[in-house]
Amino acid sequence: MKVIEKQSNSKMCFICGMDNPIGLKAQFYTMEDRSVMTCFRYKKEHQSFPQRVHGGLVGTMLDELGLRAIWAKASEDVFGVTVSMQVKYRKPVPYEKELIGRGIVIKETPLFAIIKSEIYEHDRTLLAEAELKYMKLRVEQIAAGADAHEEMCYHIKDDITEIDF
User: Fold this and answer.
1) CA distance 164 to 38
2) Domain-embedded: residue 133
3) Contact 2, 32 (CB under 8 A)
4) Is residue 164 in a domain?
5) What confidence score (pLDDT) does residue 137 get?
6) What CATH number is given to the structural domain containing 125?
7) Domain for residue 30, yes or no?
8) Strands (E), 32-162
9) What whole-number distance in Å separates Cα of residue 38 and Cα of residue 43?
10) How far apart are CA 91 and CA 117, in angstroms?
11) Paired strand residues for 3
């Protein structure tokens, strides 16, 4: 699927923060169908038991894909918070293996968005999925004094123009 644009990265977010020493430093792309996608890998340090990632960290990526799906459909100026998230774990999620994350808005109102997010192996085996409800809020409603442009300051260029999906 064709990449339309690369999304910004933050400083300290566990999923996309470039300054977070224990984070994933995941890169996100707005796709031609207005979904968001990422190719990423968990580290051994993210395990619950040997050979599998902790379920909470799987949920964290599914949650991140939610807001980024809103960005893929609208813009990075739209923010919000998770109101609810229903996760289904289909198969153990491995660490040290390239994975694909995808999120897409399935319903939207001026105040809320419903998103479907998924994590796959490269052979398209579904590992985990979630349905999320986000409430759209201004940044100052989420964190008083926060500056979204200051936190989401990294615009990392690369030559990825397509993700095989």
Assistant:
1) 11
2) yes
3) yes
4) no
5) 86
6) 3.10.129.10
7) yes
8) 36-40, 79-89, 99-108, 112-121, 126-137
9) 16
10) 15
11) 31
Does residue 70 lie in a domain region?
Answer: yes
Spatial CB neighbours of 74, under 8 Å, sequence gap ≥ 6: none
What is the residue whose two structure tokens read 């020493």? 21
CA distance 121 to 93: 8
The pLDDT value given to residue 154: 84
Structural domain harbouring 84: 3-151
Please, which residues bridge with residue 108 across strands?
Answer: 113
Record the tokens describing residue 69, joined without a space. Answer: 């799906």
Q: What is the mean pLDDT of residues 137-146?
A: 76
Distance separating alpha carbons of residues 78 and 72, to the nearest angstrom: 10
What single DSSP character describes residue 2? B
Whole-model pTM: value is 0.93
Numbers of helices and strands, H then E, in the chain:
3, 7
Domain count for the chain: 1
Closest CA to 136 of 86, 85, 91, 74: 74
pLDDT tens-place string over residues 16-51: 999 999 999 999 999 999 999 999 999 999 999 999
Amino acid at 57: L
